[in-house]
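seq:
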Amino acid sequence: MIKKVGVVGAGTMGAGIAQVTAEAGYEVILIDLEDKFVNRGMENILKNWSKAIKKGTLTAKEVDQIKVRLTGTTNYDNLNDCQLVIEAVVEKMSIKKELFAKLDDICPAETLFASNTSALSITELAAATKRPNQVIGVHFFNPVPVMKLVELIPGAETTAETVTAMKEYCSAIGKEAIVVKESPGFIVNRLLIPYINEAAIIYDQGVASPAEIDQAMKLGANMPMGPLALADLIGIDVCLMIMEYFFDEMADSKYRPALAFKQKVRAGHLGRKTGKGFFDYN
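struct:
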């Protein structure tokens, strides 16, 4: 039974996963490489709880009880009694595999490993461990406290028991899990990121401005947010990495990344997180 959960990576996704997991009654360890990253993640969680108190969705007493279950640290040895560790680090296969190999040495043999990857191969990640049967993809969506969906992606050796345990965890934290066959991008990003990429190509070609492209999709297709504003929210660097992965995996020209993605990443204009992307947030 899962009682204690480790979350590696205190960025937007990791902090969100830690928040909802602590709220559901689990003991949570939030880990990152440096104190400044851990502190930033913890501060964002506390801000969310302060807002919840003001809105009346949580009481101050409830927040005090939840806080006790959440610990931030840079010491990976604190994961040695977790029944589940969720990885939410940068979307690079080499970094994730190195982390999984490290976790394999620290955590007990029965600990489950999950990756919040948005596109990468779970089978390849699992091969970096001695427990590929206990490794699974658990793809959350941003913002984690709000979005209900979790894509569960078993690798080639993931057992039914691991899938069942993760379904139960997802249900406990108030999420709806859909089990997806391993494939680049799974369901949502396989459909969503090429759509965003095509909008960036239209922008490259000078067909319309970012504001006009987004307005067209909101008014003409009833989208709640335009594709380029969504790229800025996701992170243009993340969109580029996913498209490059699709192109490498499937060798199909329809997955060629838009030049605009490359140019904006080179300029450091990654979207909301840097204050500028297709739109200016400063």
